[in-house]
Amino acid sequence: MNIIHVKNYEEMSQKAAALLFERIQQSPKITLGLATGGTPENTYTALIAKAKENGQSFSHVQTFNLDEYVGLPAEDKNSYRHYMEQRLFDHIDIPKEKTHLPNGMAPSLEEECRAYENMIADAGGIDIQLLGIGSNGHIGFNEPGTPFSSKTHVVELAEETRKANARYFPTLEDVPKQAITMGIQTIMEAKEILLLISGKAKAEAFAKLCSDEVTEAFPASILNKHPNVTVIADEEAASVYTQKAHL
Ligand SMILES: N[C@@H]1[C@@H](O)[C@H](O)[C@@H](COP(=O)(O)O)O[C@@H]1O
């Protein structure tokens, strides 16, 4: 893993946007894997700003998001489809039909998972996958204990994850109990991975990630086995790791 240490959230976002922008500029055709949550928000803002400054078109880009809640229609303001439209898709010239998220309203969720996996394969795989991390090490919605061999599947969300995401919903009860997520193997098949880690709440997770122990109990640990991962971590996220390193 190539680890880039930055000062804070803003510097992390700028660096991440610059890296993504470079890949978008340099490729005649590119497939991005995208993430939601608080972590990548300013990366998207910075990416839009770069596109505007440079007159860069996104018409050659297609995207696949990591995950989507089950039971929320696309128009629901808490759906990840809505999140992506508000924060990125509506501000760049990417054709809407080239933006993909799992459909959490599909009549057969199992069928939807298979179709999503096939669509990624038909697109030739993901060139660069943007990732955040849960404090319990989850990536996408792959909670601890998820097999490393998993493909896109339906998950029951851990209570910890529902609580962490409750800040976006009126009450904890409104947070969906299930989601569709790319599997860990799906994520590992991306040619390149960009993991962003910011803030004190992620400090233990970052330290664990750097401990080199690869275990299904900490899903992100598998990233140690991927040949092309860049991690951008800010000072707060790196604080526990830095302390341990100096002991
Ligand atoms: N499914 C998402 C993940 O894709 C995200 O990386 C993670 C961290 O979220 P945040 O960036 O808000 O801390 O939790 C959510 O549950």
Q: DSSP helix count?
A: 8
Cα-atom radius of gyration: 17 Å
The overall number of domains is 1
Say what oligomer this is. single chain
Order of strands side by side in the largest beta sheet? Answer: 1-10-9-6-2-3-5
- Low-pLDDT parts are none
Bound molecules: 2-amino-2-deoxy-6-O-phosphono-alpha-D-glucopyranose
What top-tier CATH class fits best? Alpha Beta
Explain this structure.
By secondary structure, the protein is of the alpha/beta class. The protein is globular, with a radius of gyration of 17 Å. It has helices at residues 9-26, 41-54, 80-87, 109-122, 159-165, 184-188, 203-209, 235-245, and strands spanning 2-6, 30-34, 61-65, 67-69, 99-100, 128-131, 153-156, 178-181, 192-197, 229-234. The strands form two sheets. It has a seven-stranded parallel sheet. It has one domain (2-242): Rossmann fold (3-Layer(aba) Sandwich). 34% of the residues lie in helices and 18% in strands. The two termini are 23 Å apart. α7 links the parallel β9 and β10. The longest helix is centred in the first third of the chain and has 18 residues, at 9-26. The structure holds 2-amino-2-deoxy-6-O-phosphono-alpha-D-glucopyranose.
